[in-house]
Amino acid sequence: MESNGTPAYTFLDRLHCKLFKVELVVQRGLILIAVSSSREAESFKEQGNAYYAKKDYNEAYNYYTKAIDACPNNASYYGNRAATLMMLGKFREALGDAQQSVRLDDTFVRGHLREGKCHLSLGNAMAASRCFQRVLELDHTNPQAQQELKNASAVLEYERIAEIDFEKRDFRKVVFCMDRALEFAPACHRFKILKAECLALLGRYPEAQSVASDILRMDSTNADALYVRGLCLYYEDCIEKAVQFFVQALRMAPDHEKACLACRNAKALKAKKEDGNKAFKEGNYKLAYELYTEALGIDPNNIKTNAKLYCNRGTVNSKLRKLEEAIDDCTNAIKLDDTYIKAYLRRAQCYMDTEQYEDAVRDYEKVYQTEKTKEHKQFLKNAQVELKKSKRKDYYKILGVDKNASEDEIKKAYRKRALMHHPDRHSGASAEIQKEEEKKFKEVGEAFTILSDPKKKARYDSGQDLEEDGMNMADFDANNIFKAFFGGPGGFSFEEHKVSELQLGSSQVIKPKSIQNESRRRSMWCLEMLVCVMSTV
Question: According to the record, where are the TPR repeats (predicted)?
């Protein structure tokens, strides 16, 4: 005790009392602050709800964020912000908020639903199924959870079918499955990449590029999207640019097998094609053929490049005069790319060289319909003229001479063929044979009339006669041509001068079997004519 009789602990009691009062004040203050924060958070939430109802999701997001900052342990605030992010298409960020909401309150049904929706939208169907099953544990009659569970099962089935069809190279079916899956999983990059890859393999490059570019705008480091972008360029024969994308994809993912294989194929294809072009320019056609053939074996999926390789090899075959093989190569090029004008032109020229004029006209018509140039119009006109010429009488063939035959060769050919087919020579044959030989005799005379006249021959060779409705042979008489050519008075008759034994050789004599009573002059003329004919056979 102190000297005045006051207990010694009174001072401490007073101190404790003061501290207790301070603590009460602090607690009351904290409660007031908490109440104030809660009210403020609710106010922010209500404002967020109002903007959400107006579909102003950016403002709604801002107010839900303020509500969370004011009261960070409220599950519904995270749930609301997750819903807003989902409406903005930001499913990955929304997933984080939804997961936080159920961590704060595991019985928060809407939180589990939103988490499942985010998983499903991102293509994680298994994780989504677990979330929806949790909802059904909390509310076994929840219709939304029941439907979403079916949707998740459908996505899993589409994935399964697509994987099988990709192995079968049924790329159209894969695209179909991915389109269906993306209806439930619109933010799944994996599904989009698979669809884009199949579109590229189907030759639908603009669509594939669009999908890949959309992903790269959101994620420039996405190795799969870089690979697909390169694949499109590769299949469009932009090989150098394609290699750049493949290399970039491998930087992002060094173990990316598809990018590695595509990069290797692209480099090999580029090298082989360039080597083939070099050999062709140097005139080494055999080597060029081998190199183009090797290049064609690198990647059968590269349609545009392979079309060019087939066309190049067709050009090589045409240089080697293997025209049918050249036609086959050009046909293969056109099968791969039916818009490839160069292949049509090359094949048409080969058809012209092999006198397949109808096919040539068809190809030139296709070219002219696609590109209406003066040059293509002239190609078509030339082919049409040759086609008409091929359907008229071939005077060179009738006389048995080529197109470069000299005047003397034409005369000798006429002399031989005229005697061969003269009607009198076949007077003892059947009526059918006589008629056929008479026709040939007239054709021989007609051919000689045209080819022995330089002007008529020139018009015939150029096809000008076709434009002028022929050579006007209406007044033509084969017998007059025959008599004029051989110069005999009144001609001669095989009936009157039958010859049974004709032996070749300059020292042998032609002996008549029977000579009727005629003038000596007529008989001598006939013998001279026959000797002349036999000397030219």
Answer: 41-74, 223-256, 269-302, 307-340, 341-374
Equal fold, 267-391 vs 395-536 = no
Which of 274, 276, 250 minimizes the C-alpha distance to 262? 250
80 closest CA partner among 44, 49, 112: 49
Q: What is the pLDDT of residues 452-476, one digit of tens each?
A: 888 888 888 777 766 655 555 555 5
From residue 293, alpha-carbon distances to 289, 306, 503 in Å are 6, 10, 58
Give the pTM: 0.66
Task: Dig out the tokens for 485 from the structure.
Answer: 């050519």
**430's tokens:** 């059947």
DSSP state of 6: -
Q: For the domain with range 395-536, which CATH number is right: 3.60.21.10, 2.60.120.590, 1.10.287.110, 1.10.260.40? A: 1.10.287.110
Distances, alpha carbon 52 to alpha carbons 45, 60, 80, in Å: 10, 5, 9
Backbone angles phi, psi at 394, to 5 degrees: -95, 95
Q: How far is CA 331 from the centre of its chain?
A: 14
CATH number of 267-391: 1.25.40.10
Domain ranges of the chain: 267-391, 395-536
Q: Which of 87, 77, 88 is nearest to 110 (CA)?
A: 77
Is 533:416 a contact under the CB 8 Å cutoff?
yes
pLDDT band at 483 (very low <50, low <70, confident <90, very high): low
Residue 111 has pLDDT above 80, yes or no: yes
Q: Running DSSP on this structure, what letter comes out for residue 501? A: B
Identify the burial level of 16 via C-beta atoms within 10 angstroms of its C-beta, where 0-12 means exposed, 13-18 middle and 19 or more buried. exposed
The single-letter DSSP state of residue 147 is H
DSSP run (H or E) holding 85: helix 75-87
